[in-house]
Write a structure and sequence with these properties.
With 242 residues, the chain is α+β, with helices and mostly antiparallel strands. It contains 13 helices and five strands. The strands form two sheets. A three-stranded antiparallel β-sheet has the order 1-2-3. Strands 4-5 form a two-stranded parallel sheet. β2 and β3 form a beta hairpin. α5 crosses α13 and α10 crosses α11. The longest helix is centred in the middle third of the chain and has 14 residues. 26% of the residues are buried.
Amino acid sequence: MAKSILLKNIKKINEEIIGLSKPPEIIQKLMGAERHLINPSNEVRKALPYAYIVYTDKCFLILARFLKNKKEKRRSFKEELESFIELYNPKGYADFLFFVGAFNRMPINGPSMKELLSWRFQKYEPIDAILSDSRGLLLWEYQFDNLLKYFGAYEWKRIMEFTIKNKVTFPKIDPATADRWQTLLFLDNGFMNSSKYRELMKTLKFTDRISMYDVMKERRIDYARYPDFKAAYVLYTTLKNG
């Protein structure tokens, strides 16, 4: 793909902040099932009455984030996308899957895409292989799961027992009956909110110098989530085909 075409077609991407109290016309125009992403419950709407949305000229939604107010400072999707294309010359769908995933996890006042991709971390080939599809960053829950699988079934049993004993609040999930995916949510949430969980991560050693704690501290932007496959494909095809 020619960089010039990608940059030219950025004009086909729109971004704006909308109020949700009286949903604007754009919500009705968004394609099909995408509308529900910016049609929250009344409870959510009261707490977060605005949404920052990114969508194409054909009204396919790429991203939606709820906001407390219209003046919340945040990085521009289009500006970060332009910077990403200029600096890293993306070649295909996987590159845009990375971009959307990284942007979605960037805190409101967090690092720019250029800054993210300049992060330096300790190298270890198994970790680098597991995180190779996100340029060494920890973005997605399956990567988190694969990192933990490195330690085998015995350590997973220990993690499960620890999770049951040291609950970190997570709505509607009971640690005693949690499945593997739900336990990953506990661990990810626990890393952010519990010193006990961070200490647990320090006991999971890849090498004498690198623990699971180091990986999460150095390579994790925000909570691990599912890859944004559909949004990335919408972005990719819009930029590629115009």
